[in-house]
Each structure stands twice: as structure tokens, then as C-alpha cells.
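Aim 2 progress update. The chain analyzed this quarter is reproduced below.
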Amino acid sequence: MGVRVAIHQPHYLPWLGYLAKWAAADVFVFLDTVQYEKNGWQNRNRIKTAAGPRWLTVPVHARLGTPIAEVTVDGAQPWRERHRQAIAQAYAEAPHLDRYRAELDALYAKAWPRLAPLAAATAEWLARAAGIATPTRLASSLAVAAGDPTERLVALCQAVGADTYLAGRDGAHYMDVARFATAGIAVLYQDYAHPAYAQLHGEFAPNCSGLDLLLTHGDDALAILLGGDHWSPDPPATS
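Predicted C-alpha cells:
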């Protein structure tokens, strides 16, 4: 039986495609050894509010080139209470908010000195709440020193005993697929079609945090998010 691995930077309250990739894997590796990306998804995501999608951003201290594992959170700002209140207000009428409120409160009650553990914890909580049981590893715990992006991915696959790498739809643009073949590792590409589902607050807004789906659909969230997931040995056509 083969082992499929997904490798992704830790994202704060990630979106549906991220969770679908996680669900398709046998092991999910948080890639916390690469550089922090300003204005990316590592420290922020969107929720659906009565005024439309709203960003929830974790304030951080990060210089150019800082590895994600070394990025610190700006604890002087009351971001935890702001995010908790924003979620409670936006989803006050959501059918499943009460079910998850205590767990969300516990996440935001904890001090988070560094970004990577925070992002990973929110992602893991969201995945588990949705019913995804795939175990996780931190890249920083696997003693992989390769600097080249493709070599790093191949080495991480080997470190967890994977024979199949689950890549994003744009993976073919930044990695040397031949090196995977040389290492005996197959590559599958995700082509995620975002599902539409009943949301609060009017017209459907795609690409929100998976929290939006979870709080509005509860136990049905996993089936809904997996409905848009497709995998192929060939890279998806670019539009």
C-alpha cells in the first residue's frame, strides 16, 4: 500500500482546497522551513460577514527572508480578541457556532509567541473538526537540509516514506518533476473546483476560510469540500 504525502506551508484557518489536499493524503507535512510570505495566507484568511468577506490578519514581526518557523507574533496587539469577536459576530446565526464556540475560545485564549505553531494549530483544529484524520509532521522536525525547492520536496517525501507526492495545480511550474521520477516518487496534481454552498449574508463568496463552511454546515462540511477535489497525473490546463 502506497503512502501519499501533501506538503504545504502552515496557513491560518485555511481554505477548502487546502483541507481537501490534506484529506487526500496519508501524511500532511507543514512546510515551516521556507521563507515567510508577506501578504500571503500564512498569517491571514477571510471570513464571510454581513458586509462581505473580511480579512482576519495575525500581526507578525518578520524581516525579508525569515523562515516561517522563526516568525514571531506581535503580542502587543489585541488580535486574538478581535478575531474571536469577529467570528462570533459574523456567525452569530450560523447553525453550528455553539457546537464549536468553546474550542474556538480555547484557541484564542492561548498565547502564541510564534506564527508557525499558531497557523498549524488553527489548521489542525479545522481539519479535525471537519473530520479529517490524516496525521501531520513539521518539516523542521524531519532534518531535511536541502535548499533547492524540488530537492527539499523529494527529501521530505523520502523522510516520511511516501511514494506519491500530492502537488497543487501550479506545482509543475516550480518543481522539476523528473527528479521525483528518478527518486521513484509519483506526482499527482490537484485541480480543485470550489463548491458552492449555502452561506450566511447573501450572495455566495468563494475562497473563504474553511471555518465558514464548518460553522454553517457542521458534519456535512467534509462531503461538501471534497466534492470539488480532483487529482490527475497530468498538470491541470492553465486558463
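The two ends are 35 Å apart (CA to CA). Residues 13 and 123 are 5 Å apart (CA to CA). These observations will guide the mutagenesis experiments scheduled for the next reporting period.
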